[in-house]
Design a protein that fits this description.
Elements: H1 6-20, H2 30-45, H3 51-59, H4 62-67
Helix pairs in contact: 1-2, 1-3, 2-3
Length: 70
């Protein structure tokens, strides 16, 4: 796993929290948050560290993650 500087880590945290705001309340769990964090980390590991890229990666996966719980 690559090392990220503090600024990128803060961007990743912000993207994760903002992406969680798009998750319906009944599915807002630690497990869903962890899965979104995985997508954000994977995206950042591929060099896409902008807030927009991380948000897109996370929000595009919400429906996939939620389908695991329905």
């Amino acid at each position: 796993m690559p090392q990220f500087d503090p600024e990128v880590i803060q961007v990743m945290r912000s993207a994760l929290e903002d992406a969680m705001a798009h998750v319906p309340a009944e599915y807002s769990t630690v497990e869903v948050k962890a899965r979104l964090a995985e997508f954000i980390l994977r995206t950042a590991a591929h060099g896409h560290t902008s807030y927009d890229a991380l948000m897109t990666a996370a929000t595009n996966q919400i429906h996939v993650i939620l389908s695991l719980f329905t």
